[in-house]
TrEMBL record:
Cofactor(s) annotated in UniProt: pyridoxal 5'-phosphate
Alphabetical list of SUPFAM superfamilies matching this protein: PLP-dependent transferases (SSF53383)
Superkingdom to which the source organism belongs: Eukaryota
Name of the featured protein: 4-aminobutyrate aminotransferase
Subunit annotation: Homodimer and homotetramer.
Species this protein is from: Spathaspora passalidarum (strain NRRL Y-27907 / 11-Y1)
NCBIfam families to which the protein is assigned, alphabetical: GABAtrns_euk
Pfam families in the record: Aminotran_3 (PF00202)
Record flagged with keyword Membrane: no
Length: 489
């Protein structure tokens, strides 16, 4: 068990550097993980989870967390264990647990008003909502996109983006003509022409959410989709690259060309008009699958050629983790995406767009009671301002370069157990494959037992999702634990 005591070899690793960006936020962050229970989850966590299970679905629980005692890059559980967290609520903690600047934002008069007067934003927006957006979410907008529609979650953001694409495509088809009597009558029977027969195109192994529309574009795991009615929407292959990339340039280009050709074939042969195409910069839940800028440039060119709305799903990749604020900035596109969705690390959700015609002209079309949450937009504002103030995107890029190089050397010692390290020059958005699902699961459990909370994805992959305040000293702890775990396999 790792404990924060003088004999702990991790303490020497963690104290080598004397100036940390994390320290100004968390001077009392633990130096190393502390493990007090013989197992994780421990007895207190197990008891609490069993009690919770009597009233709440909790079959996916790793352990019960104590967020009052969590701090910085460390998550505390109900048994008092403090684990270095490189999973961070499935990529959703940008600035560490109990960040003092976010606590200030949470205690502001602005926040109190937003929480206790929770507005129905589409009908009764607050006097300060435009300013909240302009100082945060809109200040962070991807190049070429100067408008935003806010929502409740990543799935909701994608669903709203689909609705915007459908309404836009039909409005172009309809022109200046209003809705026909046939459209108005048939839509109430869930039939065409009032109900659209257009489709959304997604990629194999994609994950875009668990609501009805988003789930129909999700292709990562069967368990996500079983028993749920689905739209008969098309899919196309996503490149399966070989690593290291510099050793397989010709093979990978051929694979991306194949996928681009199949994409255009799917578009041309679709019996239904494709209103939009959606893609993740990295297919996170599907296994952290990457593609090169060449591929995404090709996708963008095809959407332009065939008049298809191009949606980039940055729910998991956005807000700095890739070494760019938005991961699609790595692509150097000739024209920006039509829509970019966001959530997770921004603690808020929605989609960006530039074309005003993507906003329906009639009221109540893109609509629900809350249309987002100003309290979350206030948090997003504080998150954005701290990222800029502390230059955390560049910090994450530098730490990611260090971590990738060290992982390459470490995992290279175990070629029979791991392969396909990926995420070079992509911040801390790093992953690798294990030889089997059993090995992957054993690594996750063993890391947790040694004080590192880490996550998996895909068939047998491990992914890293640390905070933007993750430093080399944290990376060294992770590396030490990973080495111990792989030696013991």
């Amino acid at each position: 068990m790792y404990r924060a005591v003088k004999s702990n070899p991790l303490k020497r690793i963690a104290t080598q550097s004397k100036r940390f960006v994390c320290s100004k936020y968390f001077p009392e962050e633990p130096i190393v993980p502390t493990i007090l229970s013989s197992h994780i989850p421990g007895p207190v966590s197990t008891k609490l989870n069993n009690e919770l299970g009597e009233v709440y679905s909790n079959s996916a629980t790793y352990f019960v967390a104590d967020y009052f005692c969590s701090i910085g890059n460390y998550i505390s559980d109900a048994d008092g264990n403090k684990l270095l967290d490189v999973y961070c609520q499935i990529s959703s903690i940008p600035l560490g647990y109990n960040n003092p600047e976010l606590i200030k934002a949470a205690q502001s008069e602005e926040m109190i008003s937003a929480i206790v007067n929770r507005p129905a934003l589409a009908c009764f927006p607050s006097t300060n909502y435009k300013q909240i957006l302009e100082d945060g979410i809109l200040a962070a907008a991807p190049a070429g996109l100067d408008k935003v529609w806010t929502g409740l979650s990543g799935s909701d953001a994608n669903e709203m983006a689909y609705k915007a694409a459908f309404m836009y495509a039909h409005s172009k088809k309809r022109g200046e003509n209003g809705f026909t009597a046939e459209e108005l009558k048939s839509v109430m029977e869930n039939k065409t022409p009032g109900a659209s027969d257009m489709v959304i195109l997604s990629f194999n192994k994609a994950f875009h959410g668990r609501l009805f529309g988003s789930l129909s574009t999700t292709r990562s795991k069967e368990i996500h989709k079983l028993d749920i009615p689905a739209f008969p929407w098309p899919k196309t292959p996503f490149p399966q690259l070989k690593y290291p990339l510099n050793e397989y340039e010709a093979e990978n280009k051929a694979e991306e060309d194949r996928c681009l050709q199949e994409l255009e074939s799917t578009i041309k042969n679709s019996s239904k008009k494709i209103a939009a195409l959606i893609v993740e910069p990295v297919q996170a839940e599907g296994g952290d699958n990457h593609a090169t800028p060449y591929f995404f440039q090709g996708v963008r060119d095809l959407t332009k050629k065939h008049d298809i709305i191009f949606i980039v799903d940055e729910v998991q990749t956005g807000v700095g983790a890739s070494g760019k604020f938005w991961a699609h900035e790595h692509w150097n596109l000739t024209s920006p995406p039509d829509i970019v969705t966001f959530s997770k690390k921004f603690q808020a959700a929605g989609f960006y767009f530039g074309n005003p015609d993507l906003q329906p002209k009639q009221p109540y079309r893109q609509f629900n009671t809350w249309c987002g949450d100003p309290s979350k937009a206030i948090l997003a504002k504080a998150i954005y301002q701290e990222i800029v103030k502390s230059d955390l995107v560049n910090h994450t890029a530098q730490v990611g370069d260090y971590l990738y190089a060290q992982l390459k050397a470490l995992l290279g010692k175990f070629p029979d157990k791991v392969s396909n390290l990926r995420g070079e020059n992509y911040g801390t958005f790093i992953a690798w494959d294990c030889a089997t699902l059993e090995i992957r699961n054993q690594v996750l459990l063993s890391c947790r037992a040694k004080g590192v909370n880490i996550g998996g994805c895909g068939d047998a992959s491990i992914r890293l999702r640390p905070t933007l305040l993750f430093e080399k000293r944290h990376a060294d702890i992770l590396l030490s634990v990973l080495e111990d775990v792989h030696k013991a396999l």
